[in-house]
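>> Question from a student workshop board

For tomorrow's exercise we were told to take the sequence and the ligand below, predict the bound structure, and bring the output to class. My setup keeps failing. Could a helper post the expected result so I can at least see what it should look like? The ligand is FE2/S2 (inorganic) cluster.
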Amino acid sequence: MNRRKDHSRKKEPSVGPLTRRDFLKGAGVAVSTGMLAAHATSAEAAPETEVVGPGATSITLRVNGKTQPLSLEPRVTLLDALRNNLDLTGAKRVCDRGVCGTCTVLMDGKPVYACSVLAIEAEGREITTIEGLMKNGKPHPVMTAFVDNDAQQCGFCTPGFVVACAGFLTKHPNPTEEEVKNGLGGNLCRCGTYIGVRAAALEAAKAMKA
Ligand code: FES
Ligand code: FES
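>> Workshop helper replied:
Here is what the output should look like for this input. Compare the format with yours to find the bug.
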């Protein structure tokens, strides 16, 4: 059978006196114009924001009670600033993407992943690293409890766990074991020391109250 293909354009369905194509074209212009007007209004109202970078800029961090003036590119993470610029290597890098918790530090008392915070974002905040938990040469009660409960094997995750635990116990001085488990759920240990870590946290809670 000899079939002939029809390549001719079908007639546009019409919307009132306009074709569908004319209607869509007009609507697009109207929406774009409306959006531009709204954008212009919000841009006028937006407060001025200082733009820094991509080169190095002056940043001042407060780390373990000390003021630390630095010159860093805005893309530098807090973890890199601590390890590479301030020689505070207690916070470790493993995943570098906010999963494992080995880089945990306290920011205004709250545990955060230092690999996921820019140094420039930490300006004006009080940063405490594992090194800053020692007071007058004495270990923090959480450190002592980790040793007493054999809460580490290779020890690579331990600084992050200790910092997270110290931050957790400050906010939850009377935790149950279940609360400790949930509170430290952001830290991973490949050696599987979780039982020792939870026992240490409960013991440290008692020591901190005393
Ligand atoms: S290195 Fe920061 S969460 Fe893993
Ligand atoms: S003690 Fe080895 S990863 Fe936790």
